[in-house]
Amino acid sequence: MIVMKSDGAFLTIGELSAELGVPQHILRYWESRFTQLRPLQRSGNRRYYRPADVALVRRIHQLLNVEGFTVRGAQKALAGVEEPAAEAVVAPSVSAPSPADATLIVRLQTIRDTLAAALS
Fold first, then answer.
1. Are 13 and 49 in contact, with CB atoms under 8 Å apart?
2. Which of 24, 62, 97, 117 could form a disulfide with 101 if both were Cys (CB 3.0 to 4.6 A apart)?
3. pLDDT reported for residue 80
4. CA–CA distance, 112 with 67 (Å, rounded to integer)
5. Are residues 65 and 108 in the same domain?
6. From first to last of its 120 residues, what are the pLDDT tens digits of the chain?
7. How much is the pTM?
8. Which of 70, 66, 38, 68 shows the shortest CA–CA distance to 52?
9. Based on the structure, what is the number of domains in the chain?
10. GO biological process: what's one of them (predicted)?
11. In Å, how far are 8, 64, 70, 72, 82 from 61, measured between CA atoms?
12. Are residues 65 and 101 located together in one domain of the fold?
């Protein structure tokens, strides 16, 4: 039986796990990797996720499982540090992509969006 809670209610690890479709041990792993994620822990180490924690877990899930980030990449994205753009890594002295590069970028973005839609 699924119990619907109000938007401001705390969620247990089991409830959040079921909502996202990820095992509970994955949520505990994310707690060890993302320092921003600190749910309340009550007696017996029972976890209660506040609305801000739930939003953060949803964002982590989006980054890792939908957008395909690595844990390190997701950590940087959440910290506001962006990975270097692919164009900068390939040709750091080039300020603007060539028309061929721009076409390739558009094709890659289309493929990424198609994959993300297929996964969701």
1. yes
2. 97
3. 76
4. 8
5. no
6. 455 677 778 999 999 999 999 999 999 999 999 999 999 988 888 999 999 999 999 999 999 999 999 999 999 998 875 444 444 344 444 455 666 777 888 888 888 889 888 887
7. 0.62
8. 38
9. 2
10. regulation of DNA-templated transcription
11. 20, 5, 11, 14, 18
12. no
Q: Measured between alpha carbons, how far is 11 from 105 in angstroms, rounded to an integer?
A: 40
Report the alpha-carbon distance of residue 61 to residue 58 in Å, rounded.
5
Helix, strand, coil abundance in the chain, percent, nearest 5: 60, 10, 30
Domain containing 95 equals 84-120
Structure tokens belonging to residue 92: 């750091």
What phi and psi, each to the nearest 5 degrees, are found at residue 26? -70, -40
Is there a contact between 30 and 57 (Cβ–Cβ < 8 Å)?
yes
> How many residues can be counted in the chain?
120
Q: Is residue 69 located within the same domain as residue 110?
A: no
Q: Which two tokens stand for residue 60?
A: 């982590």
Q: Which two tokens stand for residue 6?
A: 């109000």
